[in-house]
Write a structure and sequence with these properties.
The longest helix is centred in the first third of the chain and has 11 residues, at 4-14. The chain has one domain: Methylamine Dehydrogenase, Chain H. It has one helix spanning 4-14; strands at 23-25, 33-38, 44-48, 52-56, 64-66, 76-81, 87-91, 99-103, 111-115, 123-128, 134-141, 144-150, 158-159, 182-185, 188-192, 197-201, 209-212, 221-228, 234-240, 251-254, 262-263, 273-276, 284-288, 291-295, 303-305, 312-315, 321-325, 331-335. The two termini are 38 Å apart. The chain is 3% helix and 40% strand. It is mainly β and 338 residues long. It has a four-stranded antiparallel β-sheet with strand order 1-28-27-26, with no helix packed on it. Strands 2-3-4-5 form a four-stranded antiparallel β-sheet, with no helix packed on it. A four-stranded antiparallel β-sheet has the order 6-7-8-9, with no helix packed on it.
Length: 338
């Protein structure tokens, strides 16, 4: 009979051990969750269908639902927390289904800040530099991009003049899959599109340029998420969401701030979101409905993470703890070590 130490050794040799694995949490909701934003190591916000917004104050041990008035039919695809008590949430859809709400009291009360009045517009995502400055992006209309900007904490939203923007390709917009296709770092802004292009502004939105990436494009394919580790080094991920396990042409890297992009392989399927690991140079985690992957060399190579698929991911600032959200209220927590 094999002794316990020998048996343990055999198991370790026969069953490959992955260094990273998701720990599932109980969210208390069954909605499809597409937005997540970690304000700190303890406070995390998430959002999804049926007007769902949930929040934890204890690192995910318990979650509480926040009620957004008259939002039961809305699909909140993006939530951005600027601190532990302040967050913006964006709903998607044509016409007035696209809205932005804000709370400053940890979700106890909400203010409707923006309601779209253009029946052709469809807002996909937003991102904030700080508590006062942010951008929101809509699918294009008649060859023109729609980007909104706020400079007063969302009290008012102003459309960036069309003459500052490059023309949109036919039907070009963004995939409202994870709220992570808009990135703001200081005065730099990047927006990833369905046409696998990346819009960029280096001056806070006053002027814009665009670059084509080698990521696959098509009716259900393109870029779904963009992340930058610094002003120069960034990554885009995506693929074809109708072929979630297809692992080709689904990621690209830049080393010059988004001017040029180079294809990389290794992601094990379509990925809807990617995030940098704070304080760990070159570390990235990408998630999608079929699984997730981690890189420790800036996205050049990847390894699978044990656990289910998710739609969106967020790291707490200055923390190596990630939260991801997905189907039927699923929430996962991942600790990334060196």
């Amino acid at each position: 009979m094999l002794t316990s130490p020998v048996l343990s050794l055999l198991v370790a040799l026969l069953v490959p051990q992955a260094p990273f694995a998701w720990t599932l949490q109980t969210s208390g909701v069954t909605a499809r969750l597409r937005g997540v934003s970690a304000a700190s190591a303890n406070v995390v916000w998430a959002s999804g269908t049926e007007g769902t917004v949930i929040r934890t104050e204890n690192g995910g041990k318990t979650w509480r639902r926040a009620i957004v008035p008259d939002a039961e039919k809305l699909d909140f695809r993006d939530i951005d927390a600027v601190d532990e008590r302040t967050a913006y949430v964006l709903s998607i859809g044509n016409g007035d289904a696209s809205r932005i709400y804000k709370t400053s009291d940890a979700g106890a009360t909400w203010t409707l800040q923006f309601r779209n009045d253009d029946p052709k517009a469809f807002f996909d995502a937003m991102a904030f530099r700080d508590a006062r400055h942010g951008f929101a992006f809509s699918d294009s209309i008649d060859g023109k991009f729609i980007i909104l900007e706020t400079e007063n904490g969302g009290a008012s939203w102003t459309r960036i003049p069309v003459d500052r923007l490059t023309p949109a390709l036919p039907g070009e917009g963004a995939y409202a899959a994870s709220g992570s296709n808009v990135v703001v770092r200081g005065h730099r802004v990047w927006i990833a599109t369905t046409a696998s292009r990346v819009l960029r502004s280096l001056d806070g939105g006053r002027s814009w340029a665009v670059a084509q990436t080698p990521v696959v494009t098509g009716p259900s394919a393109g870029i779904f998420s963009v992340a930058f580790a610094d002003d120069s080094n960034g990554i885009v991920v995506g693929g074809d969401y109708e072929q979630a396990t297809l692992a080709i042409e689904n990621a690209a890297l830049t080393e010059d701030g988004g001017r040029t992009w180079t294809m990389v392989e290794g992601l094990s399927g379509y990925r809807s979101a990617v995030a940098n690991v704070p304080g760990l140079q070159g570390a990235l985690v990408a998630v999608g409905p079929s699984g997730s992957d981690i890189s420790t060399d800036g996205g050049k190579t990847w390894k699978a993470v044990i656990g289910p698929g998710f739609h969106a991911i967020s790291f707490a600032p200055r923390s190596r703890i990630a939260w991801a959200v997905g189907e039927k209220g699923s929430v996962g927590r991942l600790a990334v070590s060196e």
